[in-house]
Amino acid sequence: MKEYSLPIIIDYGADSCIPCKEMAPVLKTLNAEMQGKAIIKFVDVWKNGEAAKDFPIQVIPTQVFINADGKPYVPSDDLQIKFDMYSYKNTGEHAFTVHQGGLTEDQMRAILTDMGVDE
Fold first, then answer.
1. Which of 19, 49, 55, 79 has an alpha carbon 20 to 30 Å from 12's alpha carbon atom?
2. What are the pLDDT digits (tens) for 62-76?
3. pLDDT digit string (tens) for 22-37?
């Protein structure tokens, strides 16, 4: 994902999931606004299960955050949002930063700003 040189947010969910449906307009709006600044994608885990197999998806929706340099996003302490950090067992290296559950537009914008995206 490093080759994109943009922050990436992947939202794993399903068309049949109520919180996922609530987030859909936010994702659509931000995806349109952030063209060239960030990549924001939705992946339906029921239709594209293979796309989620390498990520720690336990509930939907779950968002995975990747910095522009391809490394996992490390949220600042200023954000009042709970993130889960996963490390590789064999090296202890930070592997993934995820958020489980829905996010509001304001929360998504705060995360994007924290990731270095200028609106």
1. 79
2. 999 999 999 999 999
3. 999 999 999 999 999 9
| Structural domains of the chain in order of their starting residue, each with its CATH number | 2-114 (3.40.30.10)
| pTM for the whole structure | 0.92
pLDDT at 1 over 80: no
Long-range contacts from 29-38, C-beta under 8 angstroms, 24+ separation: 29/105, 30/105, 30/108, 30/109, 30/112, 33/119, 34/112, 34/117, 36/6, 37/6, 37/7, 37/117, 37/118, 37/119, 38/6, 38/7, 38/8, 38/9, 38/112, 38/115, 38/117
Cα distance between residue 39 and residue 33, in whole Å:
10
Residues 6+ apart with CB under 8 A from 44: 13, 14, 15
Give the separation between CA 57 and CA 9, rounded to whole angstroms.
14
